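User: quick one
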Amino acid sequence: MALKTGVQYEESLRKLNLKVYLLGELVSNPVDHPMIRPSMNSVKMTYSLAEDPQHEDLMTATSHLTGQKVNRFCHLHQSTEDLIKKVKMQRLLGQKTGSCFQRCVGMDAINAVDSTTFEMDEKLGTEYHKRFLAFLNMMQEQDLTVDGAMTDPKGDRGLAPSKQADPDMYVHVVEKKPDGIVVRGAKAHQTGAINSHWILVMPTISMQKDDADYAVCFAAPADAEGIFYIYGRQSCDTRKLEGGEIDVGNKQFGGHEALMVFEDVFIPWENVFMCGEHEFSGMLVERFAGYHRQSYGGCKVGVGDVLIGAAALAADYNGAAKASHIKDKLIEMVHLNETLYACGIACSSEGRRTPSGTYLINLLLANVCKQNVTRLPYEIARLAEDIAGGLMVTMASERDLKHPEVGKVIEKYFQGVASVPTEHRMRILRLIENMTLGTAAVGYRTESMHGAGSPQAQRIMISRQGNLEQKKNLAKELAGIR
Amino acid sequence: MALKTGVQYEESLRKLNLKVYLLGELVSNPVDHPMIRPSMNSVKMTYSLAEDPQHEDLMTATSHLTGQKVNRFCHLHQSTEDLIKKVKMQRLLGQKTGSCFQRCVGMDAINAVDSTTFEMDEKLGTEYHKRFLAFLNMMQEQDLTVDGAMTDPKGDRGLAPSKQADPDMYVHVVEKKPDGIVVRGAKAHQTGAINSHWILVMPTISMQKDDADYAVCFAAPADAEGIFYIYGRQSCDTRKLEGGEIDVGNKQFGGHEALMVFEDVFIPWENVFMCGEHEFSGMLVERFAGYHRQSYGGCKVGVGDVLIGAAALAADYNGAAKASHIKDKLIEMVHLNETLYACGIACSSEGRRTPSGTYLINLLLANVCKQNVTRLPYEIARLAEDIAGGLMVTMASERDLKHPEVGKVIEKYFQGVASVPTEHRMRILRLIENMTLGTAAVGYRTESMHGAGSPQAQRIMISRQGNLEQKKNLAKELAGIR
Amino acid sequence: MALKTGVQYEESLRKLNLKVYLLGELVSNPVDHPMIRPSMNSVKMTYSLAEDPQHEDLMTATSHLTGQKVNRFCHLHQSTEDLIKKVKMQRLLGQKTGSCFQRCVGMDAINAVDSTTFEMDEKLGTEYHKRFLAFLNMMQEQDLTVDGAMTDPKGDRGLAPSKQADPDMYVHVVEKKPDGIVVRGAKAHQTGAINSHWILVMPTISMQKDDADYAVCFAAPADAEGIFYIYGRQSCDTRKLEGGEIDVGNKQFGGHEALMVFEDVFIPWENVFMCGEHEFSGMLVERFAGYHRQSYGGCKVGVGDVLIGAAALAADYNGAAKASHIKDKLIEMVHLNETLYACGIACSSEGRRTPSGTYLINLLLANVCKQNVTRLPYEIARLAEDIAGGLMVTMASERDLKHPEVGKVIEKYFQGVASVPTEHRMRILRLIENMTLGTAAVGYRTESMHGAGSPQAQRIMISRQGNLEQKKNLAKELAGIR
Amino acid sequence: MALKTGVQYEESLRKLNLKVYLLGELVSNPVDHPMIRPSMNSVKMTYSLAEDPQHEDLMTATSHLTGQKVNRFCHLHQSTEDLIKKVKMQRLLGQKTGSCFQRCVGMDAINAVDSTTFEMDEKLGTEYHKRFLAFLNMMQEQDLTVDGAMTDPKGDRGLAPSKQADPDMYVHVVEKKPDGIVVRGAKAHQTGAINSHWILVMPTISMQKDDADYAVCFAAPADAEGIFYIYGRQSCDTRKLEGGEIDVGNKQFGGHEALMVFEDVFIPWENVFMCGEHEFSGMLVERFAGYHRQSYGGCKVGVGDVLIGAAALAADYNGAAKASHIKDKLIEMVHLNETLYACGIACSSEGRRTPSGTYLINLLLANVCKQNVTRLPYEIARLAEDIAGGLMVTMASERDLKHPEVGKVIEKYFQGVASVPTEHRMRILRLIENMTLGTAAVGYRTESMHGAGSPQAQRIMISRQGNLEQKKNLAKELAGIR
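Assistant: Done. Structure below.
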């Protein structure tokens, strides 16, 4: 079997023995917990759509290891066409879930680890790539969701890993044994961690010699001994506990992040892909970040499509769709959203083959893509709030709507154009609220800002890749300076 | 007595007999309801600060009716200095509450109704102004909080009030009796309605002849027979029910909006200030909106001060305060915030006396002020999210922090610079979350957009006031076109 | 011969008998006129670079007609790879000239006319495509520069062509003869017209039935009987007449536009490619505009590279290169410039085959590309002016620098860092002035705005292509609206 | 006499014996030189308007020294009302000239020197203030135009004045004599220098002890022995030499900047207002810059009014005035322009009395004002170029229009709406060109950027004045951090 169905994916999660804390309690069954479930549904969509022949071309690929059909999330990009299809798949999933579907981190991690271990082995004579391919083979074979885990808590941002007051602020090797290593620390902001079968841990910054113990990359089952999770709160998260279906905005789908803690976890050597080779930590970070910055040119665009559609519906329901300023704002939203898409496509189209055969995106354009993602979705959201109108944040609750007496008043006074049921108007406004202020805003706004690296991280990369010296020479030539 | 203490204000609210629905239930004691209470605290601050000699100059004024000291919220502006002090008072309250303190709508309403009724009486020989002054005298004497109620539900935005499928989509007179009128309809988005003693209802648009029944302005006790309220949901509203103090972000203060419904409410003539004089509805709307657009150049600036301070603290706690890009972002936030303040001050300084003696702001600059408020707070919020870092939306809950075991893990891994307790960092991030995504974001973002009129409403006013013909003449003169 | 050398191109121009008015005089020898010459040099660069093996891959292509190597400017795009190479070629030429190199309009015109005539013939049974291929064959064989002429003077923008006070405000057929047609009218803003061998005239808007006489597409030699040109003034144009080399900023290169007038010009049928088929005018306009909007994602990016390099040099020469705000502004300039490039690449990569075999760009993304071009170069220019410093616009002239006494004072006081000659600093500031205020600003700013259609034209296309209905369905699905 | 007429001003300039180099030649009669004359006309307007009773209130003031009526440009601000009137006067002059009218630098200089010398004398026991008042008395009595000269050439921006390779990169004292001092150096970018009677020199940065010789402030006649000027080139400057009246855009008015060189100039002690008191150089710079940053909230707004009017006319003449996107762009232009005005008014209204009695603007808001001026005029200009259309930069010359044959063709094809003469359309487009690309663009764009200090200078001041610590305390209070 190389492709799980959605149902099989859900069942496979039930078999895991994850230790998850949420709102101060240990969760016995994460899959069915109403706050977690919508995020699981989003990941599940990455399996379900792959079953659909209509989406086969985007959702699946042919494994370069086995020649078998695999889910594209388990695939190493073999061409720029693969890179482009990745972005299109992400846009599709953003459209279908209106949320973060979480599985990208694993895909981006395997592509980065592949080429980095290959080049590290070439240079240092290590044999990490072989181990990695064995892991990849299992991942493809079992169609696993893998959490690519990079971001450490970091403590004081002004200090290196080994200089922190607490040595555990970055994941590090605390013991090397004949059969493996023992690691300690934590990974923060772990997207989709609770919905993953395995985790693939990478260092979070370019390490120096003193930080060699922190230059560690490995894979582990998500429920390995010593690993546990603390679920992150999101804006409006407990609306999912209220049992209704309107006020949540997007009843079926969502995303999540968690803190993942390693309390002296044992990792056998076969699952270790870097251990002390600090000089390759930078390459790994740069490539993972590069792939992930490309990703945002797909997924956030798909979510943006939903938000634009919702705003257009709100205008229809308000009876304002023909106003020229409304039409112009919708055009602007499309323009900004497609600008992000253009960046996602361009960094893919301009990708290049690395020595391992895996294709890497154009790093400059991928960073430009993400930098735009830290800005344009905020403006798209602002315009959506403009079109939606104030009712979005002053509207009565679903329970009021269902109330035998009050409900009639709400039906009457929250009516927009006469032909549209008040409930539809409420639903669409709650969806916009969800995406601009609520649980999905976490993904569409704050994670557009910080996911795959905060804005300044992209600026540093743009500075490095921008080739100012060549540009100076062009100017000198034309100015007649010799 | 012309000044209530904060305590007296709270007690006076308890004596009201308001009918309030919230989350599908009738609330027995709004003052102490944990979801409503913080908004009451914000209004209470307008009384408490007036008791403080340090703030007396801003918070109080001398009544032009009685010569007594009154709360500035009950005062008619007698000079441009008064207009400027209004803005400064609002900035102060924004700083103290980090929220919408709600009482401005009443202040802006009395100032607009005063000059409009005066000029209407002059032109039409009516006697509304005298009635209005009697109401104002009571308001000042009892230091009342008044809800200036303007916005109707509006139904289909493309249709006039009298052309709506349901005639009640705008408040209107359904019967005229010898002793008063009977009104029906609703007012939406009513800021602070549940914390008000009286309501002062105004028409929401410039009416034509066919809509004369909708051109109605009157005052009524907030608990008059036939009036009831449906409380509006806010992002993260139920965190206030959780009993903690960190996750709410701002435990003490908040704002609220509600739908206010009039089921055939009787208004005695002495409280009616317009009834059918549709040709003056536009003036009343324009002036109320003008004053309220000025207000945003004060209150939102004060809230912005808090958000800038919170972002600066987050940078300190992250150990990132010295990074040049962080410093630059804080400068940008200050710059944008002070730009709004400059607009608030300028439209006040350029105010002018109306025939009744009450001062009106400069309408062009007040609209420019509000138009900027529909944009700049969004950018300030974006920059705050940038500086805060992703932890703001992935952080574990207060309950986790209080958990005997998990709490230690959180203390350890959410630590920033070693000298700052993790709890402090969590508190400041939750405050930023509150202001950018949570309950206060409703006030800082969406209401910055739509409060006092949506962006397009300001653009129409800017178009009207911009005097393009004079500008064309300037250009012709210089271009030598005669 | 299928490739002219630069020298051959220049010689071929001399053989033309163009009638050109410039500053009120008939120009006897346009090629050597100091105001025109730099624009000729820019076009010449499209020939010279094609001679250079280093640039052969971008600058040339294999004709699908003859299999011969032709200049890419004469080529019909046979793949998305061709579309991408087009953009890269344009960026290269922008870098080499810092100017508009003018030859793109012809390339974009032949690609649009090819597919449109093919589809028109298929539908209407006409035989325009065959004629067009004959023309194309000659163009490739002789390596011609062709002016793709679209924009009519348009008169009153509110009126259709046939409703104008003067019927000649759009080019139209005034007579049909057995052997050809007679046309009258003018084409405005004709980029590179004086440097072209032939012109390829297209209608400028989608025509209705009443405007059938205006739906005309044809080719003519640039010096055909009845055609003449009036040269357009540019900011700082006469600096080129001063004889110096510093104050012009970019001594060697430039661009130009001209009004091209048709005084009853006879066109034999073999050169007519549309005559009355108004229903295909829209397609032709849309495709030409689409190709040309793509073009700007290449050429303006190349010019932007020069401007960024010049700003970076100015910072070096001022001794300010290490200031963090300077570094950040350069990063922002690169970011914005690469965003344009990403759009140029993306609309190419997402191109598609048309029935004639010629590839068309993705129209939505090409319009998004151009829309960004109407904004981002302005911000890049603003940042360049920021970095350059005020000296750029207050600096003494080249003649002062060359003055025996004053020159020493200028050397002394306009010195920046001690190691850089004052003249170098002056040269680089004049280059920035040239690109932000001078002759090249016409290309980098105003033509970024209006070339290939004014901003609103792109917004209309984005509106048409944005597929709002599909987006609404996505939102309905997630909001649970059925 | 305390008020000169415009004619008297012009005559008084003729009596000066200025040494001015322009385009490599010594100018014998600057007043009548066609490149300089328009800038003289702009300054002359500050005299002519003061003669007009309609503008008396803004243009004149009552001297606090003599009680006589003086031109406001010679006045020390005695109240916030004076500060506001200053801004309004500047807007008026910007409207009347569409240019920089140059006289502000002197007004801003005297106000800064007044309060600084007063406070310096108080602290150090010096007697500069008395000397300064004598100078001021003469200035008011003779209604002089004074060039407030601050900016030095600065050489390497990374080095202090005394550390420069050439010690003359900042103006400094080279000799102290019993009767006065000898100074050497230059002042760059001197606005209106050639149109001034006297110059008032100030240091350009906060000096340290080592730079004490550079902490020098003094007044001198503009034609003092040893002073000479080198005129700065502007974009399109030589169009003023062509003799026409259309292509210059704004025939009558302009501005200029020059390099002012001091070759060992002797200054008697009575005209020395600071000499070595380096600890007061910072205050003087900060206050002059503050006043001058306020100024831009007036003058640039007036110029903006002209540009908006010109764009509106262009739309009328193009037949596009009713298009909703055109109307919206004009609204945006007004909005941005009035935002600048609001900042100018606000920093004035919030001014405060200094110990000398002279009123100082609010420094934070003045810096916010100028920071906005470095941005918003660029967007206003961009929108003007959008509305104007491409013809602005491709239009034939005035000589072509006057040509007996070609002129008819131009009349025909450059016609917009039929009711407007083509020449009018050409005039208005040339005016827009003048303001966005030509001589006036130097003032409206680049000097908006760098005049009164480059953008980063304002950011440093905003950082200092922004009071982050107070803001942090507000946030701590609300977050419950003690």
